[in-house]
Amino acid sequence: MTTTPATGRAVLRGAITGQRKSVLAASVLAAGHQGGEALVPVVIGVVLDRAVADSSVLTLLGWLGVLALVFLVLSYSYRFGARAAERASERAAHEIRLAVSRRVLHPRGGAETGALAGELVSVGTSDARRVGIINAVLPFGIAAFAGLVVSAVVLIRMSVPLGLLVLLGTPPLLFLAHLIGKPLEKRSELEQERAAHASGVAADLVSGLRVLKGIGAEPAATARYRRTSRDSLRATIRAARAQAWHNGALLALTGIFIAIVALVGGSLAANGEISVGDLVAAVGLAQFLQTPFTIFAWVNGQLAQGRASASRVAAVLSAPPAVPDGTGELPSPPSGNVTLSAVSHGKLRGLDLTVPPGELLGVVTSDPATATDLLDCLGRFADPRDGTVQVDTVHLSTVDPDRVREVVLVAAHDTDLFEGTVEDNVRGGMPAVPEGVLTASAADEVAATLPSGTATTVTERGRSLSGGQRQRVALARALATEAPVLVLHDPTTAVDTVTEARIATGVAQLRRDRTTIVVTTSPALLAATDRVVLIEDGRVVAEGSHADLVRDEAAYRAAVLS
Length: 562
Prior knowledge:
By secondary structure, the protein is an alpha/beta fold. The chain is built from 20 helices and twelve strands. The protein has helices at 5-17, 20-54, 57-105, 117-132, 134-158, 160-207, 209-214, 218-270, 276-288, 290-317, 368-378, 401-407, 422-427, 437-440, 443-449, 467-480, 497-510, 523-527, 546-552, 554-561; strands at residues 338-345, 348-355, 360-365, 386-391, 394-395, 408-411, 420-421, 457-458, 485-489, 515-519, 531-536, 539-544. The strands form three sheets. The protein has a six-stranded mixed sheet with strand order 6-9-10-3-11-12, sandwiched between helices. A hairpin with a 2-residue loop joins strand 4 (386-391) and strand 5. Helix 5 (134-158) runs antiparallel to helix 10 (290-317) and helix 19 (546-552) packs across helix 20 (554-561). The radius of gyration is 34 Å and the shape is elongated. The two termini are 47 Å apart. Pfam families: ABC_membrane, ABC_tran. The chain crosses the membrane at residues 57-78, 136-156, 162-180, 248-270, 276-299. It is found in: Cell membrane. Its main location: membrane.
């Protein structure tokens, strides 16, 4: 588990350096390509000096063979070098995607705090790809440097001034390239941030499309996305301008440098200090130098974008967990006794509540936020600020969240289905659906209306089903786990009253002798419970049977019967 920025960056370094063998192979091959490119004008110069000047056909053919060999080597070096670099890039991006997925899905949570789902998807895809590209561009940067070294060595052998010009002029040029890339890095980070936010808003709106249409809020939702999209567009345009300025500035610097090299070489040839072949080679090398400098410009731009994306990935990987780890152990098998003592968390204010093993308890609260805070504490998605939550006298804050959720299953109201068959959604990772689950949840009625029954395939998030059908399948999935403690939150809000009464009876029968807590305001569900508690202002203010509370408590009547 990553908890600090330093460890988040360590994960990134591990993903990138884990491909060092492929990067090394790609660097060697790419360096061979650039070295071969640099040798081409040199060999042509030798042909002019030795073969053409001597009028020797055999010498000419021999050096042409050398030239063909150079082209063969540089061609294959580029082909296999690019392949190795791409492999290293994709594998690094894959490792980063896995690391982001593991962090987002970790039982201790925390990575999703303050982020839309679409933003996390963008970090795990687009940003991971940009960071992985570092492994693809580094070999070419090394190769470009190798090309410069070969060029400098050749030029020094021809003329010391030419060689020193290349050797001493390259470092300042690279430093200027680094400085020029700084604005691009900042603009790129903002671009990715705005694009991720736009993706998050879009995913949020699409997931709630039916609700938006139902309440006539499409214009407001469209206006919200339009504003977000325009912000993203402006950030993208600014990043594109920074990219264009970056590339143009580096191209101008490179052109000036190459012109100086060609000018010095021409002056030396005019003074007779180098031969005609050397002049051709020098001019050819001066033209070739544009290639490594262009590569430097491209590498610098990619690294700037990669650094910006790396900071976003590191922020997700380094997000502090919502709850700490634990070494405590729950009994096996657990009896299911649940006790909340003076719990304060969010809207909860010193809540005291005891649920004996095997009880079917109804919980009523008029404030949805109070219900959410209670569910978070029971499922250990958050630890209470004060007080304790215990199962069988063991404090949940001392138990690993994975183990807590093996014993206490919280089935949230907005649970999604997954693409696959109805049976797959109910069964989860179990070998078969336990007997009675489909009947208790009324999901058998859903299966009866589908063309292939429980083998019918449902689309992403179960959108091919109606709201009531999705709710019954989700309830069946929760019941199928046979959790020692099951917490249900409003599991029947989208079904009719007859079906709701059937589900209430079915859940009570199926969960007999196992602890079940139903957080709801449904009279049908509450009537089937052993006991009901009313929570107001974060505390239990009344408890009893559903019928007694309807008769005696005005606040209860208002919450349940209004």
